[in-house]
Write a structure and sequence with these properties.
Transmembrane segments: 21-42, 54-72, 84-103, 109-130, 142-164, 176-196, 208-228, 234-253, 280-302, 314-331, 343-362, 374-392, 404-430, 450-469
Number of strands: 0
Subcellular location: Cell membrane
Helix content: over 70%
Distance between the termini: 60 Å
Structural class: mainly alpha
Order of helices and strands: HHHHHHHHHHHHHHHHHHH
Membrane topology: Multi-pass membrane protein
Radius of gyration: 23 Å
Domain Major facilitator superfamily (MFS) profile: 18-477
CATH superfamily of the largest domain: MFS general substrate transporter like domains
Number of domains: 3
Number of helices: 19
Protein name: MFS transporter
Strand content: under 5%
Length: 495
């Protein structure tokens, strides 16, 4: 008998190098979600773009990305994860070049939608490749690195955008924030061709086209109004669109169930939600990521509008948050092996403590207040990192490889929906508080009181995250065999 047959499937000896390549691509995608925010004023001046067009520059990317994440993950299952990953990188690089060369606002919006579509083809493959490539004992560490890089990318986008605009190489200005993807993407593509192994679901089935249409329509009706509603002033059509998304998504779920009962292959295997960890993980992701996204928004607005910081100065305030997130993401996976979900619970407590200290710190700011906010944001970042990476592992732990792409796509979609919800809800709350405190306290203290009130709402989301994690940690009650037998006996006696 051969050695291979005794040891089981061969573990890829280049898996850690391969991980660095797929994570580089993931970092580029997350970076592009945030890097454009700093460049919006320059884009407006150069392309004569009005405010609604600037909104679409941001929302177009999020929309194209969120709508097709589940589809991208399923296509990786069916046609090969390496194949879809390479197609996603190639398309993303081409769309980035299109963004950088755009001569009108309309062209830039279209290019940003294309960026989002190709990001959706690429990103679910990253988690799927990690799930397939690493043995069980190494998945936690690999997912910890993945989570750390994603958190770093969210904050690095604002810093990188400010630095690129300041450098203004070759007089390209805002175009650099898109063109920087070309060398990074090409590097990732070449090394992915060389190092990655392809994998796919063993079940060779056709793509569920109607499922794609229904899911994209339902998510579009829900996410687009959330992305633009706050800046549009929440007109009536926003709420009509959100309400209309509900029957479309219900139709999608029923259609997918019907396919499953007929033995066909649905876009989204609804059986995924029978897994308790996956089901609870989706709810936890909604609470956790909505709070994170809201924090990035309100802190940036507070620094620039409330404290008069330049965009790059505002980005510096996020450095302790990023440092804490990155460190905790790397340190917590081995701790989770020993302590389980208690690590995530401790992370939520640390997050809430950081936010409480931040409420106290902003009440005594001098100048920009970066020094006063350092320790609270460092603690908040440590808490976020202690939750994010183990949460991904917890959500996907019970998913079989055959559905790895679909599960990764669903998780990524829930993250995007959570961010849109957090920005819409707490962003609107922030603006309402600013108006209220501006009338009561005057312009000088209004921004401080507004930030403190908004942080209280984010603390509430941290508490909700804690409660959901605690519920996940409880083992489902199973009926005692003796009590079952007794109940059966009673039932027979009654007959």
């Amino acid at each position: 008998m051969s050695k291979a047959s005794n040891t089981g499937p061969t573990v890829d000896p280049r898996r850690w190098l391969s991980l660095s390549v797929v994570i580089l691509a993931a970092f580029m995608v997350v970076l592009d979600t945030f890097i454009v925010n700093v460049a919006l004023p320059s884009i407006a001046r150069d392309l004569q773009a009005d405010f609604s067009e600037l909104q679409l520059v941001v929302a177009g990317y999020v929309l194209g990305y969120a709508l097709l994440l589940v589809t991208g993950g399923r296509m990786g299952d069916l046609y090969g994860r390496k194949t879809m990953f390479l197609a996603g990188i190639a398309g993303f690089v081409a769309a980035s070049a299109w963004c950088g060369l755009s001569g009108t606002a309309e062209m830039l919006i279209a290019a940003r939608v294309a960026q989002g579509v190709f990001a959706a083809a690429m990103m679910p493959q990253v988690l799927s490749i990690i799930q397939v490539m690493f043995p069980a004992e190494e998945k936690g560490k690999a997912l910890g690195i993945y989570g750390a890089v994603l958190g770093l990318g969210a904050i690095a986008g604002q810093i990188a955008g400010g630095l690129l605009l300041k450098a203004d190489w070759w007089g390209l200005g805002w175009r650099l924030v898109f063109l920087v993807n070309l060398p990074v993407g090409l590097f990732a593509f070449v090394f992915a061709v060389w190092m990655l192994r392809d994998s796919r679901s063993p079940q060779r089935t056709r793509m569920d086209i109607w499922g794609v249409v229904l899911l994209a329509a339902g998510l579009g009706l829900f996410i687009y109004p959330l992305a633009v509603g706050r800046e549009e002033g929440w007109p009536a059509w926003i709420f009509v669109s959100i309400a209309a998304s509900v029957p479309v998504l219900v139709w999608f779920v029923r259609y997918e169930n019907a396919l499953l009962h007929r033995g066909a292959s649905p876009l989204l295997p609804i059986t995924l939600f029978r897994n308790r960890s996956f089901r609870f993980g989706m709810l936890i992701s909604l609470a956790f990521y909505s709070g994170n996204a809201a924090l990035y928004l309100i802190l940036s607005v507070f620094m620039q509008s409330g404290r008069g910081a330049e965009p790059l100065q505002s980005a510096y305030a996020f450095i302790p948050l990023a440092a804490g997130y990155f460190a905790a993401s790397l340190l917590t996976p081995p701790l989770k092996k020993r302590w389980g979900n208690r690590v995530l619970l401790a992370g939520t407590v640390l997050m809430a403590a950081g936010y409480l200290l931040l409420i106290e710190a902003v009440g005594r700011l001098n100048g920009l207040g970066i020094g006063e906010m350092f320790i609270p944001l460092l603690l908040a970042g440590l808490g976020q990192g202690a939750v994010a990476s183990p949460l991904i592992q917890t959500v996907l732990s019970g998913v079989q490889g055959v559905h790895a792409g679909a599960a990764s796509g669903v998780l990524s979609t829930f993250m995007q929906v959570a961010q849109a919800l957090g920005i819409a809800a707490i962003g609107t709350f922030y603006q309402s508080l600013l108006t209220h405190f501006g009338a009561v306290d005057g312009a000088g203290d209004a921004s401080v009181s507004t930030l403190q009130g908004s942080l209280a709402a984010i603390i509430a989301l941290s508490v909700l995250t804690y409660l959901l994690l605690a519920m996940l940690g409880r083992k489902p009650q199973r009926a005692n065999p003796e009590s079952v037998a007794q109940a059966a006996g009673v039932g027979n006696a009654e007959r």
